[in-house]
């Protein structure tokens, strides 16, 4: 070993150790991937209440749709030169909010 060479039997042992280490790493990473693919998301995130989240999202979407519909109705009524008080009676909106639509009309 004077010239820096590793004896043949030591090199074989090192090679076998490296091979086993790599093999174990691949097996472990494969097991981790398998576990991740089969894990139920509810087990991973047990604190998340998906039903409640979907209900809130649905409520928000309905409210936005309703507001857009009312805005379109207000614009149509304003295009027909209806009085703001009449628009307020039909839509249930306060006159101040309807006046905002008047200000934003081109």
User: Which overall shape is indicated by the principal axes computed on the Cα atoms?
Assistant: rod-shaped
Got a strand count?
0
Tell me the strand percentage band.
under 5%
Estimated helix fraction: over 70%
Give a quick account of the main beta sheet: strands, pairing sense, barrel closure. none
- Measured between the Cα atoms of the first and last residue, the distance is 91 Å
Tell me, rounded to a whole number, the average pLDDT. 76
Structural class: mainly alpha
Q: What's the total helix number?
A: 5
What does this entry look like structurally?
The protein has a domain of 49 residues. It contains 5 helices and no strands. The longest helix is centred in the first third of the chain and has 31 residues.
List keywords for this structure.
106 residues; 5 helices
What is the fold's blueprint, element by element?
Layout: H1 8-38, H2 41-44, H3 50-79, H4 84-91, H5 95-104
Tell me briefly what this model is.
By secondary structure, the protein is mostly helical. It has helices at residues 8-38, 41-44, 50-79, 84-91, 95-104.
């Amino acid at each position: 070993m004077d010239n820096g060479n590793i004896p043949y039997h030591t090199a074989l042992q090192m090679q076998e150790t490296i091979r086993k280490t790599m093999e174990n790493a691949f097996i472990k990473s494969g097991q981790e991937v398998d576990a991740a693919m089969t894990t139920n998301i509810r087990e991973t995130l047990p604190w998340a209440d998906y039903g409640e989240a979907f209900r809130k999202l649905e409520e928000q979407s309905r409210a936005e749709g309703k507001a857009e519909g009312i805005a379109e109705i207000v614009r149509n009524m304003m295009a027909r030169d209806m009085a703001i008080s009449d628009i307020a009676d039909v839509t249930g909106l306060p006159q101040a909010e309807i006046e905002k639509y008047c200000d934003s009309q081109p």
